[in-house]
Design a protein that fits this description.
Belongs to the ATP-dependent AMP-binding enzyme family. It comes from Candidatus Rhodobacter oscarellae. Helix content is 31%, strand content 25%. The chain is of the alpha/beta class and 522 residues long.
Length: 522
Amino acid sequence: MRAGFSWDIPAAYNIAERCCDSWAARQPDRVAIVDLSGGARAEWTYGQLKRASDGLAASLRARGVRQGDRVAVLLPQSPEVLITHLAAHKLGAIILPLFTLFGADALAYRLADSGAAAVVTDAANLDKLMALRPELPSLSEVYCTDAAAEPVRAFWDEIEAAQGLTPARTGAEDPACLIYTSGTTGDPKGVLHAQRFLIGHLPAIEALYGGFAGPGAVGWTPADWAWIGGLMDLAMPCLYYGVPLVSHRMRKFDPEAAYDLMRREAVSAAFLPPTALKLMRQAPAPKGLALEAVFSGGESLGADLLGWGTEVLGAPINEGYGQTECNLVLATSAGSMPVRPGSMGQAVPGHDVAVIDPAGQELPAGELGEIAVRKGTPVMFQRYWNKPEKTAEKFVGDWMRTGDLGRRDADGYFWYESRDDDVITSAGYRIGPTEIENCLVGHPDIVNAAVVGVPDPARTEAVKAYVVLREGADWEGLPAELVERVRARVSPHMAPRLVERIDALPMTATGKVMRRQLREQS
């Protein structure tokens, strides 16, 4: 697949044209979105999506929004999110997705740092936003999808009143999307992507979902579309391929509700983060699921969870790897390649991935180093917003550094070890937490687990495990049983010396375990 692949990046390119207008011109009545977010089921066609995004784009242009300006969207999953994205792209503006659970400080930083000119929100988030407005001189327009008093603009009224639109002409290299990501230190960084980054996702989408755009295909993810996972691992690809996308506001993930939604809507392709899969494993799966492929990413799943997916969900769980700066560059693809449980898979066609040393030199198979992606792939970000020094630090030679440590084996499979600040140094060993966590979660009484290093005078660090128990599990005797499980299944030198129960693991908004927070509280 890699040998026969080459990129075809046109000079002129616009995400809205490819994900909406081209479909509306050919099949205006084709279903684009199945909206369950308001309680009732409603279908949106590509024709309707085009008219609404044209109207919003025309309104924004009339209010002074121009090519290169930032347009923020602060909404949960709903058609209005995608209408705003498409409208921004039609203006050649830069869309700024914001998570609705952000507090005032997080919102203020992102809106001020980006210099956002307009924002679309709803009544639930309006007061929080308006309280910040005096501190945001660049923010000239606020739209609300619910009823609101002036100076806030009524989203739907503006769309209805708007007059015709001639979309801006954009090139593949023109900036399109700004997503903020939190690093290990410092303020969040705005990751700027070009219009081409949609193209960069497509080889992985086709490998991960397999037959994604076949007859009757339907897509859904509980992941919020404010994050690159929910947005680019499923939502935008659905629109691009003409696959109906289910929109549903799930305020807190409920595995039984997720099962019910997938059964009722005959979901065939689902992006389910590891935390969601682990919770679903604890709930009874109904008969009648139509799943053909499940994609997960963010944490390694391990053989037990992969086996459960095939047996219970009736579909392989393929794993993808990337980050906000350069998404979906490694993948497993059941049916296209032998899947090796615990592996991150191989480099996706179109992406060159290697393990490098600190000087940027490729390391041979089997050696531990930093996973890196060669410059030139269209999925790679352009730069960090307002942070040229951080942009420079991200690269060494021809490589973009991921900050993740791993190994590549002789067959081209990559094996994740840890973030470079998550490595545990114990008695001379460098220990990554992932393999231990996978082993612990394989125990029937463990819902989730995280492993960190804690200070130890004799060993430098000792391995400590935090575990979330299933409801009704008996704690007595379980810590010793878990230690022995790791000793037997992984290695004695990796067995936890400390095991602590915890009600819930601290998570980022994208579902990744915050190990640093656990280290700090140990």
